[in-house]
Amino acid sequence: MQLFNSLTKKMSWIPQKERIWVLVAISASFLLVVWQLWSLLHLPTAALHDRRFEHTFKNYGSNARLALFFVLANYVLAAIIKQRVWDRWSYLKKGIVTLLRYVKRWHTPAAIIAISLIVLHVVAVFLYGFKWDFNNISGLLALLVLLPVPVSGLFRYKRIDRKWHMRSGLAFAVLFLIHAFL
After folding, report:
1. Is the dihedral of CA 27, 29, 35, 41 positive or negative?
2. What is the pTM of this model?
């Protein structure tokens, strides 16, 4: 009990209503990364350069892409709500507000799980063999831009981020879309 109290005091950056789901997402992400890294590191060397292994790391990337679309929906829906055109269609605006509330609640846990899938994707790509082509370089740039996003997200809870979370998140979203679709 004392350990839990000290852990929650250290996590006072995160609001009480989100804290349990953030802890669940961190725990699930940690278990997922450890389990998948263990299985990746115990593959035979010949299997690492096989076409079937390429599908493995692409699956990590595809799952991360789905989670990131959910995370980015927070910003898209917030931008849609701010448009004045919705004043005429109040019933549709109410539905979007409800959806935004749901997406906003799960923004942080989904982002944590997405980051763990991105880590697995990066490790698997390096195990498969990193080539200096456009796709790998754009992914590496997206990863470098992703690094300050969670840190600035913590600052965002205390309102001391000066919009760095949104700026670095937007830069990551652009690089991520270039990496995923070009």
Report:
1. negative
2. 0.84
Residue with token string 């959806």: 99
- Nearest C-alpha neighbor of 156 from the set 81, 104, 117, 113: 104
Q: Which stretch of 1-5, 30-34, 102-106, 134-138 has the lowest confidence by average pLDDT?
A: 1-5
129 Rama class: left (phi>0) / alpha (psi -120 to 50) / beta: left
Q: Residue 172 in contact with residue 140, Cβ under 8 Å?
A: no
For residue 114 the two structure tokens come to 């997405």
Per the listing, tokens 């195990």 go with 127
Give the single-character DSSP code of 166: H
- Position 1 confidence tier, pLDDT thresholds 50, 70, 90: low
* Sequence-separated (6 or more) residues with CB below 8 Å from residue 127: 40, 48, 53, 57
From CA 77, how far away is CA 88, in angstroms rounded?
A: 17
Helix 107-128 and helix 51-82, axial crossing angle in degrees, nearest 10: 150
